[in-house]
Each structure stands twice: as C-alpha cells, then as structure tokens.
Amino acid sequence: MPHHKSCKKRLVTSRIRRERNRDNKAAMRSELKLFRTAADGSEERKDGLVAMYSTVDVLARKGVIPRKRAARMKSRLAALAAK
After folding, report:
1. Is the model more confident about 22 or about 38?
2. Percent of the chain predicted with pLDDT > 90
3. Among 5, 35, 41, 43, which is most buried by a count of CB atoms within 10 Å?
C-alpha cells in the first residue's frame, strides 16, 4: 500500500484508467467482430469500415493501442472491405 498522498492518488487514477482502457478495448473487439462477420459488399460493412477507422484512431490517439498497430489494423480492415 502506498504511504504518500501522491502515490495513493496514482493508485486510484491508474485503476480508473486501466478499467476505462479495458472497456474501450473490449468495445473495439466487439465492433471488429461485427465488421468481420458482416456479409461481403453489404452496407453494414461499408458503414462499419468508417466506424472502425474512427474507433481505432481514437484509441490510438488516447494511447490505448500503439499507433503502428492502429495503422496496421486499418490497412487490414480496408483490404478485407475491398474483397
């Protein structure tokens, strides 16, 4: 257990951030699964691509996922949508 006031605050804030990041990652994985299971060439997949781009960009900007992983993911999603 932390003894200093600042360390106690860091413990609380890190716990809050960890939970928020975990929830955001779970939401991203759910969206990704919906995108992948959508029928090829459907409107759902086209709309889903824009939504996935936005989600991945936001998570990368917030530091939840690395920027290069976000770029790789977007590239693979675009390739999947183009099939």
Report:
1. 22
2. 65
3. 35
Amino acid 70 reads A
List Cβ neighbours of 68 (8 Å cut-off, separation of 6 or more): none
Give Cβ neighbours of residue 49 (< 8 Å, ≥ 6 apart): 35, 77, 78, 81
DSSP string, 2-70: --SHHHHHHHHHHHHHHHHHHHHHHHHHHHHHHHHHSPTT-HHHHHHHHHHHHHHHHHHHHTSS-HHHH
Find the angle CA(45)-CA(59)-CA(62) to the nearest 5 degrees: 160
Report how far residue 23's alpha carbon sits from residue 62's, in angstroms, rounded to the nearest whole number: 13
User: Residue ranges of the domains in the chain?
Assistant: 25-82
Read off the amino acid at residue 12: V
For residue 38, pLDDT over 90 is answered with no
